[in-house]
Specification:
6-stranded mixed β-sheet; flat; 5-stranded antiparallel β-sheet; alpha/beta; 33% strand
Length: 354
């Protein structure tokens, strides 16, 4: 698999084939392991050896022989990784002549999702669409997505009657439509970890990412449409800064991929991204959950103003400094809730229960 959660492991298989009728006295393979992945298994060859960030194998080949080397790697940190670079070397039996092939680092396509914590009691103010008590969201018919016809039931709106079908069949029929989620949540993830942008605190970002993942999982469980805007992602990458609001099986994977690629080297403020993407990022009437380990006054003012523009807004602070405050913005104190130690311990408990 190329999609994992922090703590999971996978098998890496190196396949090597001699496509010639001549034997190879020896062949050496060196495969580099990126930071964030760890080698678990011992080399499968008695001639091989490894360092924590390299896999090394040495073997000989007969004519047309194929060899496989098996290793287990563990996902130690969230991120998006590519294996390599790789080096293959071979030569004559006595080592007088040697040839070498260097392969570049492979495309980054191994995605390690962040951990998340269950939030059964997570709440928003009572005026918010999610309410004081968590429940399944109400589904409403989307008039732009016709689904077919059915017989008329008492109480159906007259505007839904399909008169052509009714006349043709001699019985009253109404048009039906696919349902859509009428409650949408947009998570704003601040990836700056300090008011001074040149100061980087990776642990603060990890807590913010874990908080965003936990809120996203909870909202998906409840059937809400969920979107995400992050200023720690590059446009055009496998984890872009915007995940448009949506629901369904693939939405959580898209959200987690975005969070896996979040980094503290931001290129724009959240308010600039929201202005750039417009309604694609922030549909009218959506609930906004602003999550940050460092809250800038300008961003807090922008988020607070969203409440006066038809959005329901709340904020979660997950940093290590004093709890910030801003007029008109409710900031909930989540300091220490999503620390790495607590998250890993909870993930281990869930794995044991499974």
């Amino acid at each position: 698999t190329d999609r994992l959660v922090v703590g999971e492991s996978f098998e890496l298989i190196l396949r090597v084939e001699n496509r010639k009728p001549l034997p190879l006295p020896w062949l050496s393979i060196t495969e580099t392991i990126p930071d964030g992945l760890e080698l678990e298994s011992q080399p499968s060859s008695i001639y091989g050896h490894a360092t924590p960030k390299e896999i090394k194998e040495t073997t000989g080949f007969g004519p047309y022989e194929r060899v496989k080397f098996h290793h287990r790697l563990r996902a130690a940190k969230r991120g998006i990784y590519g294996l390599g670079p790789s080096r293959i070397a071979s030569g004559d039996l006595f080592g007088f002549y040697q040839t070498q092939l260097d392969a570049p680092k492979r495309m980054a396509n191994i995605v390690v999702y962040p951990n998340w914590l269950p939030l059964p009691d997570f709440d928003l103010p009572s005026s918010r669409p999610m309410g004081d008590i968590w429940r399944r969201s109400h589904l409403v018919d989307d008039l732009t997505r016709p689904a077919g016809l059915r017989e008329y039931h008492h109480g159906d709106a007259a505007a839904r009657i399909d008169w052509k079908a009714t006349a043709r069949r001699g019985q009253v029929f109404v048009r039906t439509f696919d349902s859509s989620v009428n409650q949408r949540v947009v998570i704003l993830l601040e990836c700056d970890t300090s008011i001074q942008r040149w100061r980087i605190h990776p642990n603060v970002l990890d807590m913010a990412v874990t908080a965003a993942a936990s809120v996203a999982v909870r909202c998906i469980e409840l059937g809400y449409g969920v979107g995400l805007v992050s200023n720690g992602n590059m446009a055009g990458t496998i984890s872009p800064p915007l995940v448009a609001t949506g629901a369904g099986d693939g939405q959580l994977a898209a959200l987690m991929t975005n969070l896996a690629g979040a980094n503290p080297f931001t290129t724009a403020s959240l308010e600039k991204l929201l202005t750039t993407y417009g309604a694609d990022a922030l549909p009218h009437g959506s609930t906004v959950v602003y999550i940050a380990g460092a809250m800038r006054p300008a961003t807090m003012a922008y988020v607070s103003d969203l409440g006066r523009r038809g959005h329901q807004v709340t904020a979660l602070y997950v940093g290590t400094d004093d709890l910030p405050a801003h007029p008109g913005l409710t900031i909930q104190d989540y300091r220490g809730v999503f620390s790495e130690e607590d998250t890993n311990a909870d993930a281990e408990r869930m794995a044991d229960d499974a």
